[in-house]
Amino acid sequence: MKLVFMGTPDFAVPSLDILAQSPHDIVAVVTAPDKPRGRGRKVRPTPVKRRALELGLAVLQPESLRETRFQAELATFRPDVIVVVAFRILPREVFTIPSRGSFNLHASLLPKYRGAAPINWALIKGEKETGVTTFFLEEKVDTGNIILQKRVPVLPDMTAGELHDVLMRVGAEAVMETVNMISAGAVALQPQDASQATPAPKIFRETCRIDWTLPAENLHDFIRGLSPYPGAWTTLDTREMKILRSRRVEEPPPVALGPGELAVVGKEVLLCGTGSGALEIRELKAQGSRMMTAGEYLRGHPVAPGARFQ
Amino acid sequence: MILPIYTYDAPVLREQAKPVSSMNEEIVALIADMFETMKAARGIGLAANQVGKLHAVCLVDLSEMDEEDRHKPLVLINPEVVDSWGEDVVMEEGCLSLPELREDVRRPEFIAVRFKDARFEEQQIEAGGLLARVIQHEIDHLNGIYFTDYLTGFKKTIVRSQLNKIKKGEVETDYPVMVNGEIIPA
Question: Taking the model in full, what pTM does it have?
Answer without folding.
Answer: 0.84
